[in-house]
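Handout, section B. The chain below has 220 residues.
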Amino acid sequence: MGSIQKYALHGFLGSACDFAHGVDLFEYAGPSLGLDQWAKEFNRKTRDVENKMLVGYSLGGRLALHALAESPSAWKSALFLSTHFGLETEGEKCSRHSIDLLWSQLIEQAEWSHFLSAWNAQAVFKGTAAICRMEQVSRRALWADAMRHWSLGVQRSFLKDLHSLKIPWFYVVGERDYAAVNRAKKLPKSKVKIIPDAGHRVHLDQPEIIGEIYDELENS
């Protein structure tokens, strides 16, 4: 078996440059097609690579879950970084989608610097690496569409899928990402890695540890 090819899916406002093996989410399909169609296009365009690992951070992790559900036999292993596997109730989904629609309006209408300040002020980003995404203003229309059509509020829960996933995988969260740590309690303990001195942007807070997890997964 040859060396494994990694496909790393970045998070919201991210880019392929965020990971050594990063890919641009928008290269495969536009957000307006929805999560399931994106997964189909992504799997179709990567199907010729046989030995491959799927990596996803935050939004990219949610897209990775859809790709695995669409074609579970296509991937040899998977790594989920700070990934929400889905809300459980219709009420939670409706509430989240409403919030994300407001974010999409802010993305379209506000000064970009104002939007970034509001985005980075969210509680989920406390205790994690600070980043500025001024360059993403050129893709604000795509990000607004992503907030609408890739919202956590329109995603189904993948909790059962993770419990039955047959390939090697890990679910990685920073210890200061408290909501994610709490969600991780619903997963098999052997699959969960809680990273010390890290928050939501766990790959930026502890890149060396994440690299070690890559190696562990690749050798499993």
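Note. The radius of gyration is 16 Å. Compare this with the example in section A.
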